[in-house]
Amino acid sequence: MYDEVRKTDPAIAEILDQELDRQRSQLEMIASENFTSRAVMETMGSTLTNKYAEGYPGKRYYGGCVHVDEAESLAKKRAMALFGAERANVQPHSGSTANMTAYLAFLKPGDKILGLSLSHGGHLTHGHPVNFSGLLFEALHYEVSPGTETIDYDKLRDQALAERPRMIVGGASAYPRFWDYEKLRSIADEVDAMLLFDMAHIAGLVAGGAHPSPVPHCDVVTSTTHKTLRGPRGGLVLSRKEHFKAINKMNFPGIQGGPLMHVIAAKAVCFRECMQDDFKDYAKAMVANAAALGEALLERGFHLVSGGTDNHLLLVNVTNKGLTGKDMEALLEHVGITCNKNTVPFDQESPFVTSGVRLGTPALTTRGMGVNEMARIASIIDGAVQNREDEEALNGLRKQAEELCREFPLYPGM
Ligand code: DSN
């Protein structure tokens, strides 16, 4: 592996080796990360990276696009079939540019958008003041209710009626529950707003039939392709037929230049993988694993935001354990579990400290782990919290995590 890099750039080859080793030897629980197939990686490392192809299939600004045209057409066709969407644009470089494309296709600077607050599980690009979405638009936010820690749709409706946003944005990066798409749609219709849903986190669950789809209810659905969908790092916009011209025009030439054809071809590979029966099993297993981990953590007195999960992630408020999210992230890293600190609803700590951690099952499920392994991981997590001052006990827990990794080898032939 990496033979050419090793010859020409040993420093980078060493970093590649070390990163492979890190991914193999730690329990990866960052809810937005996954391990792509070798086929996706091979396509990413192909000659398609050499090609300029500004424009769209059949309408390019460069010659020599015959083969990349085929790749992009396949990616679009597969994305539409996979999600039952009328149209797809597979060019966004990321989830962020997918959202920028969708906003700017329909909104003018200064227009109102209404999205879930970042500290209640939303995303930076849903109107946070430091992000382009908050800088360009008048961004308003809805929240979860303090009691249930689930989205307060009544309040959302009141806000929408009072503020009349041009667009309502659904979707999240740290929300463990189902969304009520019908309710979002009816609120959007009531105030004559467009409805955009950013399904980046749950796209793989939707593709595999383990989670309801936002596509039939929304004007536009955006996504990344590398989280639960398990493809290359990139973005995607799905839309109704009447919106796709505006979306295409805004993505190119509005926002992006040359599309990343190697990534687009890898998206096609990913979409095909997602159409197979074993991906349905994978999607179900991500959810079953998150539920099992949640149950085991609840039994050990952990506070799960909203009381549990319907998807691939858990948001754990660790205040009752006498820890901050920052402490917990470091503690888990010490015992071989990678996760991220995360704000929880109504957090009293800063976003750099936080009161919680987000735990996800996509990557471990790809390794083949199941509910029995989730029970072992819950016990490692609890053990780390109980023994946080005891270095010997923590070393023992790290060995348990390493043993689990050995039992479920990652990229064995690499
Ligand atoms: N940074 C991603 C996540 O971790 O959820 C969202 O873009």
Quick structural gist:
The chain has 414 residues and is an alpha/beta fold.
Topology:
Elements: H1 3-8, H2 10-25, E1 27-28, H3 38-44, E2 55-56, E3 59-60, H4 66-83, E4 87-89, H5 95-106, E5 112-116, H6 132-136, E6 138-142, H7 153-163, E7 167-171, H8 181-190, E8 194-198, H9 203-207, E9 220-224, E10 235-239, H10 244-255, H11 261-274, H12 277-299, E11 303-304, E12 313-317, H13 325-334, E13 337-338, E14 340-342, E15 356-360, H14 362-366, H15 371-386, H16 391-407
Residues 32, 95, 123, 173 line the site of D-serine.
Report what the structure shows:
- The chain has about 425 residues and is α/β, with parallel strands linked by helices.
- It is about 45% helix and about 15% strand.
- It has 2 domains: about 40-275, Aspartate Aminotransferase, domain 2 (3-Layer(aba) Sandwich); about 275-405, Alpha-Beta Complex (Aspartate Aminotransferase, domain 1), CATH 3.90.1150.10.
- The strands form 4 sheets. A 7-stranded mixed beta sheet has the order 4-10-9-8-7-5-6, sandwiched between helices. A 4-stranded antiparallel beta sheet has the order 11-12-15-14. A two-stranded parallel sheet has the order 1-13.
- α6 links the parallel β5 and β6 (about 140).
- The longest helix has 23 residues, at about 275-300.
Report the top-level CATH class of the largest domain.
Alpha Beta
Which hetero ligands occur in this complex? D-serine
In angstroms, what is the radius of gyration?
Answer: 22 Å
Instruction: Assign the CATH topology of the largest domain.
Output: Aspartate Aminotransferase, domain 2
